Amino acid sequence: MLGNDIAAALPGLRAEAESRMRDTCTVCPVTGVNESTGAPTLGAAIYGPSVAPRYGKCRFVVASVQESDPQAGGATYTVTRGRVDVPVGAFVALTGLVVTSVTSEMDPGLPGRRFRTQAPSPANSQATAYRLAVEEVT
Fold first, then answer.
1. H or E element, residue 94
2. Residue 34's domain is classified under what CATH number?
């Protein structure tokens, strides 16, 4: 039966998806806003090992290039949309979490960049990875 075949193959497929996650990142909730800079204040990391440093494997992907240039407070910002893949069960993704790139084996310009999740983790019992819609504001 197809359902049995999928159930048997799923652990291997998830391992294959994780083998492509060669970057590391932290995921933190926003706890407030720095009034002098307007930057978000971040809470403790919710993704990674149980001991410091709390970061885990991930993969940054450009889902599509859809920049926009909104204005706020007299400044213009560029918003770029993309995706971050993390292992299934890594954490419960909610809208508004901040994903910060820690290391990137293949893109030296990625570490330090921050992205905001745009939606909760979609429900998918047969997912090979959590694919999180994110945007970067620069």
1. none
2. 2.40.10
Residue 46 in 3-state DSSP? coil
**pLDDT of amino acid 104:** 95
Q: Look at residue 130 and give its three-state secondary structure.
A: strand
d(CA 99, CA 10): 26
- Pairing assessment for the beta strands 98-104 and 23-28 based on DSSP bridges: antiparallel
Q: What is the pTM of this model?
A: 0.84
Closest CA to 40 of 84, 85, 99, 92: 99
Peptide bond between residue 53 and the one before it cis (omega within 30 degrees of 0): yes
Find the domain containing 80 and state its range.
2-137
Mean pLDDT of all residues in 84-96: 91
Tokens describing residue 112:
């330090």
